[in-house]
Amino acid sequence: MSNSSLKRGLQITLIVLAVLASMGAGDDARFNALGHKLMCACGCSQILLECNHVGCSLSERMRSELITALDRGDSDDLTLQGFVQKYGPTVLAAPTATGFDRIAWIMPYAALLGGIVLVSFIVRAWKNRPLLKPADLPVEIHGAELDHFRQQAQKDTQL
Amino acid sequence: MSQIGSFALLLALALSGYCFVAGFLALAREGPGSARLAETARRAGIATFAVVLLASVVLVVAAFQNDFSIAYIFHHSNRDLPAPYKFATLWSGQEGSLLFWSLLLGAYGLVLRLRYKTDARLFAYASVVIAAVQVFFLLLLNFAAHPFALMQGSLPADGNGLNPLLQYPEMVIHPPMLYLGYVGFTVPFAFALGALAMRYPGEKWIHITRRWTMVTWGFLTCGIFLGAHWAYSVLGWGGYWGWDPVENASLMPWLTGTAFLHSVMMQEKRGMLKTWNMWLIFSTFGLSIFGTFLTRSGVISSVHAFAQSSIGDWFEVFLALTLATCVYFYVRNHSHLRSEHKLESLISRESSFLFNNLLLLIACFTVLWGTLFPILSEWIQGHKETVGPPFFNRVNVPVALLLLLLTALGPLLAWRKTSIESLRRNFLWPAIGALLAGVILVAVGVQPWKDMSYLYSLMTIMLSVLVALTVISEFVRGGRVIARHTGQNLFASMAQLAHRNTRRYGGYIVHFGVIVVMIGFAGSAFNKDAEKELGFGDKMNIGPYTLVCQSYTQDDNPNYGSEWAVMNVFKGGKQIATLNPERRFYKASQQTSTIVANRSTPLEDLYLVYEGQNQDTGRPIIKAHLNPLVMWIWVGVWIMLAGTVLAMVPNSAPVRVTASARVQTAPAGAD
Fold it and tell me: Within a domain: residue B178?
């Protein structure tokens, strides 16, 4: 075997190994990601991959089902749908982004946006609010009155 | 024993009822006898505490005497329960924890009623409000959740025992801390409602309640994080916060309480946000009660199922009455709450507080929305949706990042108006420092483009550095001024600076604690875990560690039986620790509990869980978690609490330098 074909063979082997390794890593990452999008269906209210109570009748089986789905090459959506079909909608750890569930996601951001608009409006309104009393011409102040203003200035700048 | 307890509860109800009615009448009618009537009401309020204390002591004594004729003791204790947990029986179940709530409310009321001379009329109003809340809890205790109810039929030989999850040292202090926080918000609420009802002039009520609010906030902070630490150490899932409805219930009043602590400064300094503050403290109290309602009613499934019952209706009625009372007094007296000043600039401390409040309330709303969405979904769609950690993390993390940014900006802004130039000058170096921190993190291998959680972590750490640098620069700048005038070294000057304005610098230390906590949270993006069945001498790897199973065995004592493994931990070929993850089986309650083995360092926690035994081989299954930066969370909480304590210390008097002294100390040739 010539040097060049040996080199090419080595390169192909390395590429294949790298692809296989990255595929494996991808499956691990997908298993981890999907497993954290699912709840254990035994009623313990825990994320599937975090369910650890003794004698749990379902979490081990559900994890195996997740691995099987990934090995089968199912997409993320298809895998999650499979779990919903089998265990009901509560198996998903968060509302979906479809139908009524969309409101769950929209509301916090809508509230944030609405709040920012409202506070900006309030700030503007307060800024434009007329002074309670018309400004007088500057007058000299002394004694107790001056002390009062000193105290006020100290209070204003203390915090 | 139970008769003494039952009688004490009835007497407490009568006394608190008298305190409420007599106190109310004394305030409603001005007359010669009203002062005496008010005094009898005050004394009845004080006596309520003594009688509720008696009832609580009776319950604890019954636990120590194994008096299983009392149903509560039978359900929550057993003969072999260790003494500290027998004491904790008081708050480990529904009825007992309501009694404990009533006791703490009585204690807060006692302090308030003893200090009434500060402002007799305002304190009398607050006392009436507290008495009303006390009446509600004593009604519950006497008629819906009686802690001294007797067992039916023959007397059992032993009790069911305490829930194993609660048999952990922190559980002896976590609920009291949390309750001190929940109950404590009744005091600022009572003062606020009293001040509104009597159209209290000025902001003195805010000054009076400031320390109450901070103490309460400190307790709630402590309670929440003790709960997180308990979950981390006992539940064995490798995390500290699961967005469980009951965790959320404690977080909501904490968020509004935090907003209140910030916004009251605007009222104190500038006479603004009066209506806002009033409703903020009303909401905080309402959310404390709502949290208790969530814990007790069972409307939402939670890991805290040990306290569920059907007393939810009582809480609904109480919440409705509270809201109606608040609305009534607000409608009647809202003209009293007009702002005294206008906002002068968008770039000012005032507007930073406004946006701070907005973000804290949005966070609170998000938590409330997510907690209640399953119920809403069931009403509308006919089936419950799960709203778990992925939802809360995704919507709350951006809000938390914005809050961190404001935490950095806020201290740099002056009251009334800040010039852009001044902001730029003060912000430039902290911003460069934060960017540098980001570059270093990317250089050491954080890849924010790979995953959203990495990006959030990077941003959290950068913003935390920004906050830290602004806080440090505030201390250094102020310290330098003092050092220049007094000739002290910089650190002594900074200590003096903090002592001169404890509230401001205590607040900065709290902020510093918050960022340390946030850095701890940021570490969670890099968590790793591995699970393996291990025989003698078997190995498993996680991160830089190799775990070798040296042995596994079983143990037994009167309270529980246990299985545990002896795991040697190696790093770089060198043994650095031996850990013993354990699983216990409690005999009385027939329940299992995990005792996690955790090796905690500032960089990471190596967290081992004894998952169970393979029934065929008898070998243990060990789950290992590698959780970076978790220790920072607990350290951060201590810093937050230290800052809170500092903020409550009275300011030292400013050092006055007389003109003659200045002349004497002026350098030669300074003329």
Answer: yes
Task: Classify the C-alpha dihedral B292-B294-B295-B296 as positive or negative.
Answer: positive
* Distant-in-sequence, close-in-space partners of A31: CB < 8 Å, separation ≥ 6: A66, A67, A70
Structural domain spans, chain A: 3-91, 101-158
Domain count of the fold of chain B: 2
Which of B487 and B440 is assigned the larger pLDDT?
B440
List helix spans (H) across B271-383: 274-297, 312-333, 349-381
Positive or negative CA dihedral for B383, A52, B363, B318? Answer: positive
Those residues whose C-beta lies under 8 Å from the C-beta of residue A83, and which sit 6 or more positions away, are A38, A62, A65, A66, A91, A92
> Cα-flanking dihedrals φ and ψ of residue B551, to 5°?
-165, 165
Query: Dihedrals φ, ψ of B627, to 5°?
Result: -110, 105
| CA-derived radius of gyration, chain B | 28
Distance between CA atoms of residues A88 and B260, nearest Å: 42
Q: Do A111 and B366 touch (CB under 8 A)?
A: yes
Predicted confidence (pLDDT) per residue in B192-247, tens digit: 999 999 888 777 888 888 888 999 999 999 999 999 998 888 887 778 888 888 88
Edge to edge, what strands does the sheet with B620-628 contain?
A: B528-533, B620-628, B604-613, B597-600
Is position B147 within any domain?
A: yes
Between chains, do B342 and A131 touch, taking CB under 8 Å as contact?
yes
pTM of the shown model: 0.86
Point out the residue among A91, A116, A158 whose CB comes nearest to the CB of B501.
A158
Contact B383 A92 (CB under 8 A): no
Distance CA B267, CA A159 (A): 13
Domain span at B98: 2-336+352-366
Average pLDDT rounded to a whole number, residues A7-31: 57
CATH architecture of the domain with range A3-91:
Orthogonal Bundle (1.10)
Q: Per-residue confidence at B300, pLDDT binned at 50, 70, 90?
A: low
Of A44, A95, A115, the CB nearest to B391: A95
Q: Would you give the end-to-end CA distance of chain B in angstroms?
A: 84
Write out the two tokens for B200: 């209290």
B554-611 pLDDT, tens per residue? 888 888 888 889 999 999 889 999 999 998 888 877 778 888 999 999 999 999 999 8
Is B41 part of a structural domain of the chain? yes
Count CB-CB contacts under 10 A for residue B529: 17
Q: How close, in Å, is residue A7 to chain B by CA atoms? A: 32
Q: How far is B387 from chain A (nearest CA, A)?
A: 5
Residue of B nearest to A48 (CA): B237
Q: Name the nearest CA neighbour of B164 among B112, B223, B230, B105.
A: B230
Which range of A114-123, B364-373, B382-391 scores highest in mean pLDDT? It is B364-373
Other beta carbons less than 10 A from residue B551's beta carbon: 13
A contact test, residue of B386, B474, B526 with most A CBs within 10 A? B386
B339 — contact with chain A (CB < 8 Å)?
Answer: yes
- As a whole number of angstroms, the distance between CA B393 and CA B380 comes to 25
Q: Are the beta carbons of B99 and B72 closer than 8 angstroms?
A: no
Q: What is the dihedral of CA B9, B14, B18, B20, to 10 degrees?
A: 50
Inspect the interface and report whether the beta carbons of B391 and A93 lie closer than 8 Å. Answer: yes
Count CA atoms closer than 13 A to A41's CA, side-chain side: 16
- For chain A positions 114-143, those within 8 Å of chain B (CB to CB) are 115-116, 118-119, 122-123, 126-127, 129, 131-132
- Cβ contacts (< 8 Å) between B303 and chain A: which residues? 44-45
Tell me the pLDDT tens digit for each residue of B24-55. 999 988 777 888 999 999 999 999 999 999 99
- The answer to the question of residue B384 being in a domain is no
